[in-house]
Specification:
It is a single chain. By secondary structure, the protein is mainly α. Helix content is 39%, strand content 0%. It is built from 3 helices and no strands.
C-alpha cells in the first residue's frame, strides 16, 4: 500500500490587472466632492447663517478660500 502525501498549495493573491493598464506615475484624479471639505463647510455655514443684508459680500473671504483650495486640485469654479 502506498501512502500519498497531501498536496499543499499556497493561496494565490489576485492581481489587479487594471493597475497594469495605468501609465507609471499617473495620479488618480480626485472628485470635487472629496476635497476642501472644511472650506466648503465654512463657506456654506457663512452663507446660510449670515445676518448681513448681502451674505455674498459678507462671506467673500470664505468663498475665496474655498475657490483657492479647489484650484490647488485643478478645479475652476
Amino acid at each position: 500500500m502506498s501512502t500519498l502525501s497531501p498536496i499543499v498549495t499556497q493561496p494565490s493573491t489576485p492581481t489587479n490587472l487594471a493597475a497594469d493598464l495605468k501609465p507609471a506615475g499617473q495620479v488618480e484624479k480626485v472628485k470635487p466632492c472629496c476635497v476642501c471639505k472644511d472650506e466648503k463647510s465654512q463657506r456654506d455655514e457663512c452663507m446660510l447663517f449670515s445676518r448681513a443684508d448681502d451674505p455674498q459680500e459678507d462671506c467673500k473671504s470664505m468663498v475665496s478660500r474655498y475657490k483657492d483650495c479647489m484650484a490647488t486640485y485643478g478645479f475652476k469654479i
